[in-house]
Amino acid sequence: MNSRFDWPGLMRAGIGGLKLEPGRFWALTPVELRLMLGLEPGPPPLSRARLAELDAALAKAKEQKDERDCRDRACRDRGADHQPGAAAGQL
């Protein structure tokens, strides 16, 4: 059988080197195994500055969602005859 993969070598690296259980090893895709072995470039490490950007973006997204939820509740509380756009004839 002609195989592109060195299965004995991959098994030694995954099961022996990475200490994966056989079921976990066989569940991996070749790309996942290569990432775990450090053979594929992965994403760069998360810097403090990038973490701060993500934190700010999450806070802003939560705030916008809260505002939308509040507007939606206010519309429901006013009743169906006072839907947004009703006064402007947009319904």
Portion of residues in beta strands equals: under 5%
* Overall mean confidence score, pLDDT: 82
The largest sheet is:
none
Shape: elongated
Tell me the structural class. Answer: mainly alpha
Structure description:
- The protein is an all-alpha fold.
- It folds into 2 domains: 7-36, no CATH class; 48-82.
- Helices cover 60% and strands 0% of the residues.
- The chain contains 4 helices and no strands.
- It has helices at residues 7-17, 22-27, 30-36, 48-78.
- The longest helix has 31 residues, at 48-78.
- The radius of gyration is 27 Å and the shape is elongated.
- The model has no long low-confidence stretch (mean pLDDT 82).
Sum this structure up briefly:
This protein has 91 residues and is mostly helical.
Layout: helices, strands, pairs:
Layout: H1 7-17, H2 22-27, H3 30-36, H4 48-78
Labels describing this entry:
2 domains, 60% helix, 91 residues, mainly alpha, 4 helices
